[in-house]
Amino acid sequence: MSPPAALFTEIEPLTTFDTSNAKLEDGTKIQAIGTVHTKLLDEFGSKWESFKFNPIRESQVSRAMTGRYFNDLDTYAESDVVVVGAGSCGLSTAYVLAKARPDLKVAVIEASVSPGGGCWLGGQLFSAMVIRKPADSFLRDIGVPFEDEGNFVVVKHAALFMSTLMSKVLAMPNVKLFNATCVEDLVTRPAGQDAVRVVGVVTNWTLVTLHHDNHSCMDPK
């Protein structure tokens, strides 16, 4: 694979495509992401000499992040649903539940810094993602285009599916993703003779979970 500059002495001008009539398999119209000429370029292009970021103090950055994070911890300390794992299954579950029941608080716990699980590739390190019907209904719901192959459909890149699903879930007002957070144990309550009921989870930051043997907790007395 080589960039155009390595193959040709002259680079042809960019070609624009008319996406005004682009649709999904079910006829849903696809909203155009943008064209070669965008408002962003019009606003900042050829103005780099005078460009500068607005001033901000380090303390403002810290308070903006920590304040919101600990407020989320307080809000979701009691959640209606806790989803363990932010892979394709966990995020799909959170999406369907939160959309069907906007009154529910849904917490998603993910051990990794980067959610999405192994769904950034379609399998065997290939890009395309094969999904058996009738799961194509879910793709239509979240707006992921695909090719229909009869009993199955093909998304051109698994990352398109995962990034779309992730953006939908994270934008929901009743869902909070806590990544870099491990579930270490379950909270249970008695539920009749010889039975228990799971009512919660015990969490810890992933870095702490990975290093339990490297530090100790001291009684302050």
Helix-strand layout with pairing:
Blueprint: H1 4-7, H2 39-44, H3 58-75, E1 81-84, H4 88-100, E2 106-109, E3 129-132, H5 136-142, E4 147-148, E5 152-155, H6 158-170, E6 175-178, E7 181-190, E8 196-205, H7 206-210
Parallel strand pairs: 1-2, 2-6
Antiparallel strand pairs: 3-5, 4-5, 7-8
Low-pLDDT parts are none
Assign a percent range to the helix content: 25-40%
Nearest-integer average pLDDT: 87
Series of secondary-structure elements, N-terminal to C-terminal: HHHEHEEHEEHEEEH
Tell the overall outline. Answer: globular
Structural class: alpha/beta
Cα-to-Cα separation, first versus last residue: 65 Å
Instruction: Report the β-strand fraction as a percent range.
Output: 15-25%
DSSP summary, beta strand count: 8
Query: In angstroms, what is the radius of gyration?
Result: 23 Å
Q: Tell me about the biggest sheet? A: 3 strands, parallel
Strand order of the largest sheet: 1-2-6
How many DSSP helices? 7
Question: How would you characterize the overall build of this protein?
Answer:
The chain has 221 residues and is an alpha/beta fold. The protein contains seven helices and eight strands; from the N terminus they run H-H-H-E-H-E-E-H-E-E-H-E-E-E-H. The strands form three sheets. A three-stranded parallel sheet has the order 1-2-6, covered by helices on one side. It has a three-stranded antiparallel sheet with strand order 3-5-4. Helix 4 (88-100) packs parallel to helix 6 (158-170). The longest helix has 18 residues, at 58-75. It is globular and about 65 Å long. The N and C termini lie far apart (65 Å). The model has no long low-confidence stretch (mean pLDDT 87).
